[in-house]
Design brief:
The protein is mostly helical. It has one domain. Helices cover 56% and strands 4% of the residues. It contains eight helices and two strands. Strand 1 and strand 2 form a beta hairpin. Helix 5 packs antiparallel against helix 6 and helix 7 packs antiparallel against helix 8. It is globular, with a radius of gyration of 19 Å.
Length: 268
Amino acid sequence: MYPYICHIYGPLYLNCYGLSIFLGILVFSYLIERDKNFELLFPKDKFSNFLFWGVMVGIAGGRLLYLVEDYSSFESVFDIFKFWQAGYSFLGSLIALLIFVILYLRSLKVNTLQFLDVIAIYVPLLHSIARIGCFLAGCCHGIATDKFWGVTYTHPDVLIPHSFKFISIHPTQLYSSLCLLLIFCLMYFVFKNTFKVPGQLTCIYLMLATVERFFVDFLRSDQEFFSSKALSMFSMHQWISVLIFTAAFIWFITITFTKSSKYNYGSF
């Protein structure tokens, strides 16, 4: 796998990871703008602004959680702002984006739960495409394996540690990508026609996405753990996934039993 496509200037490269995220955002934008519920909920002239700030917040949130988990990898405070370098956490981006979207939508007086449900359908596809970039770059890599589908990184610029080069490892990035693609298919073809109460689709997405991360993390070699023995049974990301899943599950149960199940998005 080759992480870079071409050199731009100085430390800046057009890399596979960034390109994958960009393609994911393009596909996400294309699909969501053609969703009939999106057209009814959100002013189209505000979408480009929403998307821009959403990307910025997602990058900042992912960088911040990565810093909390692995602060030793930053040699100086200025390294935090080198966004072209590796070092992001999806769960950090997810938490930051949830906060941003809720606040942004309230400022526009857009129905937050209904719009979150629309976003929740397409975000797994964006994430699935982005994970392919992780695979090409060598980040988020797996542990050693003797399975025939294991992959071996040999390029000097890939992001995995030298100890994991030239050996067969689990392609955990592709595991995640396939799981997220399945989540998208379930959200788009099954759940969006089944769950009509505002907020339900958002909860389902959060539960499925965190389950995916929890189980794939067992095969990842870049885990970070809390120092406490009581918490060291799972990685930091797994504990965060458990917390998000629990909150989403409680939220799902609450709204399912307190709001009308007869709600239909087509009744605007």
